[in-house]
Design brief:
There is one protein chain. The protein has helices spanning 16-28, 33-40, 49-58, 64-73, 80-86, 91-97, 144-152, 170-175, 189-201, 251-259, 286-292, 309-321, 325-341, 378-391, 396-400, 444-449, 459-469, 474-494; strands spanning 78-79, 101-104, 107-110, 112-117, 120-125, 158-164, 179-186, 207-211, 223-228, 264-278, 297-307, 346-356, 364-368, 403-406, 410-419, 422-432, 439-441, 454-458, 497-499. The chain is of the alpha/beta class. The chain starts with 15 loop residues before the first helix and ends with a strand. The model has no long low-confidence stretch (mean pLDDT 91).
Length: 500
């Protein structure tokens, strides 16, 4: 086991005027997400030494942006006079009082990582991506799961939201833009200190922070929106609060998902990132169905990966392997023994989306979550839930009476090849350009139907006209509508079509 490491003090909240001047100074130095991507070629900066060395060599100037990027993004010491010049409205002494930097021998060293994200600035603990000597209460910044959860969440105006396991507070800050009041909880006082600092830095006043485990600080309360990025990693460790729950297998994720319904208002949505003990073969969603069955909520179960035990362990332990191969090998064995002891054949990763709805029977559906194409999915989620409501128990005759509209968020792609002096269509795919960015193959008949879904005519009229336009044989015409209905249902389920 690695030695316990003492955590540095988190940043401090001071007067509102200091934070106003700090925000203005950062913006004045063009310390923005757009500039980071333009100058460093990425919006996901790593603090691993090999990558940091490359980024430092991209920042050859002494301009304010380069100075702040070296200081707050790349963990490099910078001359004090450079920092004073980069952000003169604040100065080094004020940055020290905030707990953002340390000054020694005329050099300034950041004590936190400060990252521009959209129109926010987000502070978190610096470094430690090496996998060595990470404090238990280390507070990470914005990582890939944070972005996934932020994109999944429904972004509609509402009264109250909860962020369970807020960490540095990014989900609460994003919710604060469209929610009257946000309550954010965490078991870590350091995490709440970072969240309080980030709220103050960004001028956010409608976020309330509460210390406690899971939903305990929210007893008896209901919310219109709940988001949670819990420590969902299935591991034998309890070394890192942000990663390890200390509970066996997927127990923490199950508890969170099953606690959500009691805290959702009617019609409210919850989005929870989860991992779960899965079977090596069979339906990946079976364990999750058991979590949400008879919950009083409609459930959308999403999966982006299933890993075998070795791949699972190696992925999470990889940073340690980069700095200490001996410890890495021992940790791999320990994780594999743990998974085998619990008879875990595979580990699934994904999200559970719940909507509270009083009904005799709530529905459950499953879909893949394509992370490589994920776009902000709030509107897509609303389309999918509305479509599933419509389709539940809907017969073919009732479907034929529906006026349907093709979403504007689509692209039809064709693959052509040359033949006989011209081009022929080899294949066609219909892509969503928002939300989960689903892709579905379509034949020529379906592609020809798409322009007619304008929301003004019922489906039966569209299909009747299409059967004439396609010049089908009588036997083909009789089979056309029955063949088209499953395709239309699938397009409606996936959010390509919506009922008007």
């Amino acid at each position: 086991m690695r030695r316990a490491v003492e955590s540095p003090a988190p940043p401090r909240v001071t007067g509102a005027d200091t934070f106003r001047r700090l925000r203005e100074g950062l913006l004045g130095a063009s310390f923005t997400a757009e500039r980071v991507e333009a100058e460093l070629g990425t919006h996901e900066l790593s603090s691993r030494p090999a990558e940091t060395a490359v980024h430092l060599r991209r920042l050859t100037g002494a301009d304010p942006f380069s100075t702040l990027a070296k200081l707050f993004l790349l963990d490099a010491g910078v001359d004090a006079d450079r920092v004073e010049g980069a952000i003169p409205a604040v100065g080094v002494e004020a940055l020290e009082r905030l707990g953002l930097v340390e000054l020694a021998g005329g050099r300034v060293q950041a004590t936190v990582r400060l990252v521009p994200h959209g129109d926010y600035f987000v502070a978190s603990d610096a470094g430690h991506e090496s996998g060595a000597d990470v404090p238990y209460d280390y507070v990470p910044g914005i990582q890939a799961p944070s972005v996934t959860l932020a994109k999944l969440a429904v972004r509609r105006p509402c009264s109250r939201a909860a962020d369970v396991g807020t960490g540095c507070g990014i989900q609460a800050l994003l919710a604060a833009k469209h929610v009257d009041r946000v309550v954010a909880t965490d078991t870590s006082p350091r995490a709440l200190a970072f969240a309080a600092f980030n709220a103050a830095l960004n001028g956010i006043e409608n976020v309330e922070l509460r210390l406690g485990d899971g939903f305990e600080p929210l007893a008896g309360e209901r919310f219109d929106l709940i988001v949670s990025n819990p420590p969902y990693v299935i591991s034998p460790d309890a070394a890192h609060a942000y990663r390890d729950s200390g509970l066996a297998a997927d127990e923490l994720c199950r508890r969170i998902v099953q606690s959500v319904p009691a805290h959702l208002e009617e019609g409210g949505f919850a989005h929870v990132l989860v991992s779960w003990a899965a079977a090596a073969e069979g339906d990946w969603a079976d364990p999750l169905r058991a979590w949400v069955d008879e919950s009083g909520c409609d459930a959308w179960l999403l999966q982006y990966r299933t890993s075998d035990p070795l791949t699972h362990a190696a992925g999470w332990l990889k940073p340690l392997g980069e700095v200490d191969p001996v410890l890495y090998a021992g940790a791999l064995d320990r994780w594999l023994e743990y998974l085998e002891r619990l008879r875990i054949e595979a580990v699934g990763y994904g999200a559970v989306v719940l909507r509270r709805r009083a009904a005799d029977r709530n529905w459950i559906r499953t879909d893949p979550l394509p992370l490589d194409r994920l776009e902000p999915a709030g509107e897509h989620t609303l389309r999918v839930f509305a479509a599933q409501d419509t389709l539940e128990g809907l017969g073919d005759d009732e479907l034929l009476d529906l006026p349907l509209a093709l979403t504007s968020h689509h692209r039809l792609r064709q693959t052509l090849s040359c033949a006989d002096g011209g081009f022929v269509v080899e294949s066609q795919t219909l892509d969503l350009t928002d939300g989960l960015a689903f892709t579905i193959g379509v034949d020529r008949h379906t592609a020809s139907l798409l322009p007619h879904f304008d929301g003004r005519r019922p489906l039966r009229d569209i299909l009747a006209r299409a059967s004439e336009t396609f010049e089908l044989e009588p036997s083909e015409r009789e089979a056309f509508v029955p063949a088209a209905l499953p395709v239309v249902r699938r397009l409606l389920e996936l959010g390509f079509l919506e009922s008007r």
